[in-house]
């Protein structure tokens, strides 16, 4: 049984992860739940906070190494600052960590790579199984469709999502650019406006929609002479990501150290 903690416990993702972990008591034991300083839920029992209708005898607390001690894996769906704190705490106690937070800067990503030399880390912008299939389908399409195919990525999310483009859209672009041998910084085009002229070759268009309560949708377009291929992943509920995060936690608990993607966890 894996001893599990979640950072961002009462957020959109954290609450679903904890609900599913609670229902998978044969695989997971919830040992800690963390919220940021200033949260009005600090000190409250986790059970009622999740709507379970019973006490779990787990107090919602601020993340610290002392509170994380004895945990096998910490799942982090918080904020860049929350991830920074989570990474330091996991390192301090030797726990594995699953990082699903997006919008991280390059320095924090480098800190994650450095920490993976000591602890197991699964780092992915999208934990859903279907979205990770989308990464692989995008790579395969980029490999097979040579000259003459224009590439566009469209991502749609709810109005509350803070970062844009999504981490998933960025990862799709990275996968395609790597397969093509392109420098993403040179070929990425984030939206278009005004008199653009003809579309240049070897460009990856990336477009963002923020509206309503869209959970998450990503479409990759390969359009060439006389035909267009569209590959779409549509998350119908956050449980798709939550289940994937638990798969990643199960995987991380069995590793000693190293940096892994969600695709590694699915092998």
Description of the structure:
- It contains ten helices and twelve strands.
- By secondary structure, the protein is of the alpha/beta class.
- The protein folds into two domains: 2-127 and 238-266, Rossmann fold (3-Layer(aba) Sandwich); 129-235, 2-Layer Sandwich (Dihydrodipicolinate Reductase, domain 2), CATH 3.30.360.10.
- It has a seven-stranded parallel beta sheet with strand order 3-2-1-4-5-6-12, sandwiched between helices. Strands 8-9-7-10-11 form a five-stranded mixed beta sheet.
- A hairpin with a 2-residue loop joins strand 10 (216-224) and strand 11.
- The mean pLDDT is 96.
Order of strands across the widest beta sheet? 3-2-1-4-5-6-12
How many β-strands, per DSSP? 12
Major sheet summary line: 7 strands, parallel
Low-pLDDT windows of residues: none
Top-tier CATH class of the largest domain: Alpha Beta
Strand-pairing-aware structural class? alpha/beta
Percent helix: 25-40%
- Distance from first to last alpha carbon: 21 Å
CATH architecture of the largest domain: 3-Layer(aba) Sandwich
The total tally of domains equals 2
Shape: elongated
Strand/helix succession: EHEHEHEHEHEHEHHEEEEHEH
CATH fold-type name of the largest domain:
Rossmann fold
Strand content: 15-25%
Q: How many helices?
A: 10
Rg: 20 Å
Q: CATH H level of the largest domain: which superfamily? A: NAD(P)-binding Rossmann-like Domain
Question: Mean pLDDT score, rounded?
Answer: 96
